[in-house]
Amino acid sequence: GEARRAAQGMEIEIEVGPLDRLPYPDGEFDLAYLVARLGTLSDREATLREAWRVLKPGGRLAITEHLADRSYVPASIVQRAGAAAGFELADSQEGSWDHTSAFRRPLTTA
To answer: Strands 55-66 and 88-94, how do they pair?
Structure first.
């Protein structure tokens, strides 16, 4: 729990709110993680653009989708959406029941 994370020097906050309008300044985070969310979003593109905005240059976005989820999004679509939002694909892992695409926000913009 929270005490264990604090003992390990991890600062983690969990908040609930709209993913396409996060209440944080630009470049605030090193990592963002979406699990089984992409298929449930009404505006996937806006959410990924918002993740790009709040990540620091070089920051990471990991997106995991589970095959058993009703709103499952295939890896190819996740990867196209990430690229369209300006991310670079850093890694992709596919298992029998899930996949994770790890993206990186470029250090500079074109």
So the answer is: unpaired
Q: pLDDT digits over 31-78, tens only?
A: 999 998 899 998 999 999 999 999 999 999 999 999 999 999 999 999
Burial of 100 (0-12, 13-18, 19+ CB in 10 A): middle
**Sign of the Cα pseudo-torsion (74, 29, 58, 26, in order):** positive
- Report which of 16, 73, 76 is spatially closest to residue 44, judged by C-alpha positions: 73
Higher pLDDT pick, 1 / 18: 18
SS3 call for 43: coil
Q: Cβ contacts of residue 27 below 8 Å, gap of 6+? A: 54, 55, 56, 57, 59
What is the rounded CA–CA span in Å between residue 5 and residue 7? 5
What's the predicted TM-score (pTM) here?
Answer: 0.85
